[in-house]
Design goal:
By secondary structure, the chain is mainly alpha-helical. The chain has helices spanning 6-13, 48-55, 75-84, 90-93, 97-107, 111-132, 143-149, 153-179; strands spanning 15-20, 42-47, 58-59, 62-63, 65-67. Helices cover 54% and strands 11% of the residues. The strands form two sheets. A three-stranded antiparallel beta sheet has the order 2-1-5, with helices on one face. A two-stranded antiparallel ribbon has the order 3-4. Strand 3 and strand 4 (62-63) form a beta hairpin. The longest helix has 27 residues, at 153-179.
């Protein structure tokens, strides 16, 4: 995570579901109970930056909390990504879907989840490249427009880079043909 990256900061602020494994004194304000304690087995959504810090802490060789899968990484979403990755509106799930998923995967040992996300990104990246080569910049309406509206932030950066590169190549080819 880059200290100055706006996307990293916004990803860190996304809430993720957690379950406290131990009672924690004086942290009740996290659960709208100022001055109180957090009881063991209390489910509580926390910002990702705080969940990451608490998930790696231990007390008497027991973790303070367990990080649960966010709703954007539940089996229903993963099944949809496996079936047809291009049809899933990732932006509707999380604006920073892949960045948040990568951060969560650092804390969980879910190899299958990582494989599904990697394959989905590859399939979506190929579709993004196809749309980026469109002479109008892939902004056409219809199915392609729906797909582009569902891109998360990483994918939007990828689309912009691919579109700008394609445009630069077309300009260069025009200059080469004009020089002959």
């Amino acid at each position: 995570m880059s200290y100055y990256s706006i996307s990293a900061i916004l990803t860190s602020a996304q809430k993720v579901p957690c379950t406290f494994d131990l009672p924690i004194p004086n942290l009740g304000f996290l659960d709208d109970n100022p001055g109180g304690d957090i009881a063991a087995h209390t489910p509580l959504p926390l910002p990702l930056y705080l969940a990451e810090l608490l998930a790696v802490q231990q007390l008497d060789n027991k973790p303070l909390l367990t990080l649960d899968l966010p709703s954007s990484l539940q089996p229903r979403v993963l099944n949809a990504l496996q079936a047809d990755a291009k049809s899933v509106d990732l932006r509707g799930l999380e604006v920073y879907f892949f960045e948040g998923a990568a951060r969560v995967l650092e804390l969980l040992e879910e190899e299958l989840l990582g494989d599904v996300l990697c394959e989905a990104f590859k399939k979506r990246a190929a579709e993004i490249a196809d749309h980026a080569r469109n002479a109008r910049g892939g902004t056409s309406s219809g199915e392609g427009g729906e797909f582009l509206r569902g891109l998360d932030e990483w994918e939007r950066v990828l689309f912009r880079a691919a579109h700008d590169s394609s445009k630069a190549v077309r300009m260069w080819m025009g200059e080469v043909k004009g020089a002959k």
